[in-house]
Amino acid sequence: xxxxxxxxxxxxxxxxxxxxxxxxxxxxxxxxxxxxxxxxxxxxxxxxxxxxxxxxxxxxxxxxxxxxxxxxxxxxxxxxxxxxxxxxxxxxxxxxxxxxxxxxxxxxxxxx
Amino acid sequence: xxxxxxxxxxxxxxxxxxxxxxxxxxxxxxxxxxxxxxxxxxxxxxxxxxxxxxxxxxxxxxxxxxxxxxxxxxxxxxxxxxxxxxxxxxxxxxxxxxxxxxxxxxxxxxxxx
Lengths: 112, 113
Fold this sequence. Notes:
The complex is a heterodimer.
Chain A: E1 4-6, E2 10-13, E3 19-25, E4 31-38, E5 42-49, E6 56-57, E7 64-70, E8 73-78, E9 87-94, E10 102-103, E11 107-111
Parallel strand pairs in A: 2-11
Antiparallel strand pairs in A: 1-3, 3-8, 4-5, 4-9, 5-6, 7-8, 9-10, 9-11
Chain B: E1 4-5, E2 11-14, E3 19-25, E4 30-38, E5 45-51, E6 54-58, E7 61-66, E8 71-76, E9 85-93, E10 102-103, E11 107-112
Parallel strand pairs in B: 2-11
Antiparallel strand pairs in B: 1-3, 3-8, 4-5, 4-9, 6-7, 7-8, 9-10, 9-11
């Protein structure tokens, strides 16, 4: 079974803090993705990576950065958290284009 | 206009009803169509995956793609309370080499016993 794990299910942070969200997949997938999900807005792509050390901006990259030093791990970084970054963050991975995309359980982030 | 439109609902049906969930899209380059199911406070999980036009059936679930109308549907027969979830449609360009999906907003379904 494919497994995508995220480091935290719930996080509470203060405005201005640097926040790290970690995602690990165990199926040697090439592509990894970070989304945020908000009521009424659906899933929005923040960043994705199709190889180690490669990254591409998604639809809403502002305020975020990513790191992929190893194939199995994709990190999302909020350099200076703001209240409008309160959201559900979902990581996903897939072997490549046209293949099934698998999601992690999500991290609910609250920025106070 | 969004590339993929999906009515957010909520949709409430009695147990045993046939449920129809739909998405429309504007980009004729989409070739791959998916339906994900997401239970509350969980990540989405793939339910159905179809390529191009036609129908695909899996148990109580049928996915239908009409490329001429740019319209996809998911039918759930004999709906159960355990089907209560948010259903997300997703699409991918035929020429995509990055694996980027475009998602609909999601439709919340409640099946009442």
